[in-house]
Design goal:
Elements: E1 6-12, E2 14-15, E3 18-19, H1 27-42, E4 54-58, E5 62-67, H2 73-81, H3 93-108, E6 113-118, E7 124-127, E8 140-155, E9 161-165, E10 171-175, H4 178-183, E11 192-202, E12 208-216, H5 225-238, H6 245-252
Helix pairs in contact: 1-3
């Protein structure tokens, strides 16, 4: 939940031995800072419409106060994640890029400092020459697994593949040996399919990369009458000497409670 409806974005610096403020600010900073604030508020998913965000300019350091932010849940979630230095991989890419730009600028000019804080000062992010915001190392491991979804496309002349729409709506492009597609007896196009694949999986996000089709799995929705009757026969044979199966189970459990 958002602590307040407002966020204060401030940048402090000294230019010609004078503190930066609304009356004394380099033209480059005057254009860059509001643009960075806009990028941070909007994010890559454009959660906020800048035209709907009200901005006021505060005296002192160059500061912009944005209001109308209570419903921007991803924004507040990213600010919470930014309480930890190795968190850039967990926040929106646009917001992470702003933090990296600010950190680079502060390292080039140790007097430069940036601050984001809510009006209640219950959440805040500061960037200066000593901060070390970074992305945690991505770890990919080889896996073999089954994935299911709807086949949107398959085939190809030089690089055959299968386009599989996953349950979450994303489309995974799976490389496939041409001979495997040629020998597949079913027309899988626009139908549900189970794929046995080899891939690399991100340990943190679960994202798959470089997937390769090993085989099509059997249709789990198909009822095999022959297999069912075989299992019934096996079960009947195994339980033929038990006169009351329910009583036998209860006896194993130690009797009824």
């Amino acid at each position: 939940m958002a602590p307040t409806n407002e966020l204060r974005f401030a940048v402090s610096d000294r230019i010609d031995d004078t503190e930066v403020g609304p009356g004394h600010v380099p033209l480059s900073l005057l254009s860059e800072f509001p643009r960075d604030v806009t990028d941070f508020l909007r994010g890559s998913k454009r959660e906020l419409d800048p035209q709907q965000v009200i901005i006021s300019i505060e005296s002192g350091s160059l500061a912009l106060v944005a209001s109308g932010l209570a419903a921007a849940t991803a924004l507040w979630s990213d600010l919470a994640n930014l309480q930890f230095p190795d968190s850039l991989h967990t926040v929106d890419p646009k917001r992470a890029a702003v933090m990296e730009r600010w950190q680079a600028a502060a390292r080039q000019n140790p007097r430069r400092k940036y601050l984001i804080a809510d009006s209640a000062q219950r959440i805040g992010v500061s960037v200066d020459a000593s901060t070390d915001f970074r992305r945690a190392e991505e770890v990919w491991v080889p896996v073999e697994k089954y994935i299911d979804g709807k086949v949107l496309d398959w085939g190809g002349k030089t690089k055959p593949n299968v386009h599989l729409e996953m349950p979450n709506g994303t489309v995974l492009k799976v490389s496939a040996p041409q001979v495997l597609l040629e020998q597949e007896p079913q027309n899988r196009l626009y139908r549900h399919a189970l794929l046995h694949i080899r891939a690399e999986e991100n340990l943190r996000t679960g994202v798959l990369r470089n997937p390769v089709l090993l085989a099509f799995g059997s249709d789990q929705n198909t009822f095999d009458e022959t297999e069912f009757q075989r299992m019934v026969k096996l079960g009947t044979e195994a339980w033929k000497d038990v006169p009351d199966a329910t009583a036998w189970v209860e006896d194993l459990r130690g009797g009824k409670a």
